[in-house]
Amino acid sequence: MQDLDANDITDAVIEQMAQTPDPRMREIMEAAVRHLHAFAREVKLTPEEWLKGVAFLTAVGQACSPIRQEFILLSDVLGLSRLVNVMHDATGREAAGTETSLLGPFFREEAPKIELGGSIAYASKGPEIVIYGQVTDGEGKGVAHATIDVWQTDAEGLYDLQAHDPSVMEMRGQLRCDDQGRFHFRTLKPLGYSIPMDGPVGAMVRQQNRHGFRPAHIHILIAAPGFRELVTALYFADDAHVDSDTVFGVSKSLVIRESLGLPDAPVPGIPSIRYDFTMSRDTSGGGGRVGSDPSRLVPAG
């Protein structure tokens, strides 16, 4: 029988977990226990505060559904998603590779396929822009037939999962580059938006006196055999919150601005953005998505 004090309890818990067969699970759980116990000791956590924390995490879980991922949102606003993303970049992104960004909580698998030059705005209305460029490897050679998934808010600042019935896919699509890795598609200029503020994460953000806004952006996911999947986003320079993204996703190299009259623009007369993406060779075989289709984490039914 042990008489445990505020310090002994940590070692006792870790000792009980020492026979965990999976070495990586053992490493992660030991570190989690050490840091959680150290956190509780540092802030002198009271029973009332502990119960509030339990209630908050319970509410976060209850807010999750096949079309909403409140736990990913919590990770995003705490900067944990960005931290995981940056650490993953350090494990295999080549020096020339495009910087990555967060997949976020609104990605959906099996987006509608569009042809090169097609539009992802099937019903939404607003100012149209053209995105074009080339997908290359680290040496500048085009990656033939790379697949590009793209998704964004509409011109009102809403994703399809927020604006429509879940069966509707809007402002998202999948296209395939040509044999030189070139691509172009039409879309609407997105609007910056507030993260969902009607749940427990939104309530926490309000209590912290944060604005809760994300700058206007377009999500991009590029895949090709032999290459590390590229998950990134393009952020609009003229958005008021481009320097204070509430989920910390913006990098300078990903900030863009539309222009008229670009000499190689594929659709004259429409504001265009050229952005070339550089993929890194796949050396690990591991995934790099800091985010998920909500339905993969909370299946319907």
Give a short overview.
The chain is of the alpha/beta class and 301 residues long. It is 27% helix and 17% strand. The protein has helices spanning 8-16, 23-43, 47-63, 70-77, 80-89, 160-163, 200-207, 294-297; strands at 128-136, 147-152, 172-176, 182-188, 193-194, 213-214, 217-223, 230-236, 255-256, 272-274, 277-278.
How would you describe the overall organization of this protein?
The longest helix has 21 residues, at about 25-45. Helix 1 packs antiparallel against helix 2. This protein has about 300 residues and is α/β, with parallel strands linked by helices. The strands form 3 sheets. It has a 5-stranded mixed sheet with strand order 3-2-7-8-9, with no helix packed on it. Strands 1, 4, 10 and 11 form a 4-stranded mixed sheet that branches. It has helices at about 10-15, 25-45, 45-65, 70-75, 80-90, 160-165, 200-205, 295; strands at about 130-135, 145-150, 170-175, 180-190, 195, 215, 215-225, 230-235, 255, 270-275, 275-280. It is globular and about 75 Å long. The protein contains 8 helices and 11 strands. The mean pLDDT is about 95.
